[in-house]
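Response to reviewer comment R2.3. The reviewers asked that we include at least one raw input/output pair. We reproduce the pair for Glycosyltransferase here without editing.
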Amino acid sequence: MALGVAIFFALLTLAGIAFSLLALWGTRDFVRFWRTAKRPEFAPGVTVMKPLKGVDPKLYAAFASHCTQQYEGPVQLLFGVSDMGDPAVAEVHRLQAEFPQMDIVLVHCPLRLGTSGKVSNLAQMLPHARHEYIVINDADIVVSPRYLTRIISPFDNARIGMVTCAYRAVTATRGATLWAKFEALGVSCDFVPGLFAARRMEKGIRFGLGATLATRKRIIEEIGGLEAIVEYLADDYELGLRISQAGYEVVLSDEVVETSVPQYSASGYWNHQLRWYRTIRDARPGGYFGLPTTYCVPWALATVIASGFDLWSFSLLSMALLARMTVCLAAGVGVLRDGQVLRDLWVIPLKDVACLLLWLFALLDDTIEWRGERFKLDKGKLIRAN
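Raw output as returned:
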């Protein structure tokens, strides 16, 4: 009996190692593609839209990074708030004063068009966009000076309907909680390698990432406008999916942006991740049920225990650790340039155990907590729970 359990865990470990090899293949393919890709000099006018709610310590730095772009075309920065008393309004006024040469517009978005306040604001901001090309990103996204050049240039090809990009999540420089480290490592060591693997296996991606959603106004209108996704939790995923279904290509750029991780407590991390896992389960159920096989290290540890600490199980554990760490270094450090991965490498086995527990708990219910309210997910849509 014990041997059978050990063999079962060993098979799960081997499946996880196989996924690690697939992720490495996907990472290599992504890097090679962009190393040889032609970058056309295409710089039309672009409007960057940022819906706002509240402030955080790095918010102004994120705003300012959009004002120092090495971009040849005209740029409009469009901010939207539902309440003109929001503290983010003062940060926009500060930005306008510091960068008077920039076209910076603040839009009041008083209407609540649906469950998602963010998308509701975006829908009201869009008529104020001066340019055909639109870039949507979250308020706290920090970008490099080449950001717009890299994001917009693929649109030289008329078949391209969306450009999106990966991101690294940065914790506090000092005193980051263990849970904040879990969150950041989850992006660099799980989400992005999985993204590269999916891109390789599916010959591209068919969804968007909220770190950057670049498209055209005409295409947004073609898919029914932003109002069509105002009830969806994963609005970024849904927008990219609809653009793909309309016959356009979605490009994953090699540009990497940066976002900040809150100082999560255990409960804050758990609730945030539970919402994320249930969103994945709802959006990509096939991928979700294969997710636990990707965590090879916890299964290898279980194999060691189930085998009675037999020598062969330690060999398997060594292979699993090597595969897992190689993926983290290749994608997290090599592509994302995330130095936190090196600093927190020892945390990864602990995080992987937590992820398995989250995966299991996410199966037990379809209710999520979002902005202080409880909702049920139904095919991506948010329905208020009784």
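The chain has a mean pLDDT of 94. The beta strands are 46-51, 75-81, 103-108, 133-136, 160-170, 213-216, 249-260, 367-370, 373-378, 381-384. Further pairs are available on request from the corresponding author.
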